[in-house]
Structure formats: structure tokens, C-alpha cells
Amino acid sequence: MRKLLLSIAVSALLTTGALAHSPVVAPEPMAPAPTYNSAGFDWGGFYMGLGISGSALVVDNTTSDDDTTSDDDTTSDDALRAFNNNTAFKTGYLDLIVGVNMTVDSLLFGLEGWISGFSGDWSNGFGAGAQARLGVLVSPEVLLYLAGGGFTDTVDQYGTVGGGVEFAVTGNVSLDLEYKYWMSLNSAVTGNGIGASLNWGF
Questions:
Q1: Which of 13, 128, 149, 162 has the smallest count of CB within 10 Å of its CB?
Q2: Domain 45-201 has CATH 2.40.160.20
Q3: Model confidence pTM above 0.85
Q4: 61-97, pLDDT tens digit by residue?
């Protein structure tokens, strides 16, 4: 009996010693859930951009030529009557853009202005415009928006409404694709425009 108890005690001591010298293996930490982030793109703040755009405007000059205008009146109506009714004239623009955005959750509010050099079927020159934007981030790197504003040049003044989609390209660069519907404020001119720009946030 004494030998049996002694054997049990020796076995217990050997087992305890083996456990004491066994390395302790810590449980592996759980991998964090993947996050979808557009290279850290920040939609808020100021930005500058360089863009190209074009418009195709249609003149509805069904207004009678008997309108009372003096010979030296150089209004845009007089210039636009040189076109036949419903004849589109096309213009290309090079745009220098500045703007600012503010985000609230997935909503974006923005103001944007630009100056343009243009060349077209009717004239060449410079102009300037501004618009407000209201958009929603459909993903961290894609913005859909509506826009409304105006543009003035050496020929006429226009109101514009439209919208677009903007993509985050790198941490501070985005590509903006936009459509505008043009409406003259002084004559019977309407039309469509499209544009693309690269914008740099700072």
C-alpha cells in the first residue's frame, strides 16, 4: 500500500513538472474586419481643378425681325439672329475651377466657381461661372450630385442645371464627369453641355 501511494505521488510530481515547463500558447487575436476606404480620400474642404467641357446650344430665333432695336444695339439677340432657327452652335471650353465642399454623414454640400477660355462656332473669348452642388456618397469613393448655377461670357448670360458623378482617384485627386442644361437669360437659346475635370483637394 505504501509503495502504491509513493508511486502515485511520484507520478503527480512528474506530471506537474512537465506542465510547468510547457510553453504557454496565447490565443491568436481575431483579424479586424476589412474596411472599404478610398485611399483615405477626404470629400470635405477646398479644391482646385482643371477641366475641359463643351456645349451645343440651339437658337430659336422665331422672334420677328421687327423687334425695336437700334442700329448700334449689340445685344446677344442681334448676334444670335445670324443663325437659322434651331441651328446648333458648338463651343469648347478650358476651365480653371475652385470650390469647397462640406460633408454631413453621406451628404455633400458644395460651392464651385470657374473661369473659362472658349472657342466656338460663334465667338472666342473668356467667361466665368458658379454653381451650388448637393450630392450623396453612394460609396466612400463615388459621389452622385445635382448642380445649379450660372455662366456669363462676352455673348450672353446663362442659367445652368445638371448633375454628375465624381470618383476618388487617389488620396487627394478626383475625376468629375458632369452634364449641364443651358438656358439663356436674354435670348431664346437652350442646349446641352458635358465636361470632365481633375480636382486636387487641399
A1: 13
A2: yes
A3: no
A4: 665 444 434 444 444 555 555 555 566 789 999 999 9
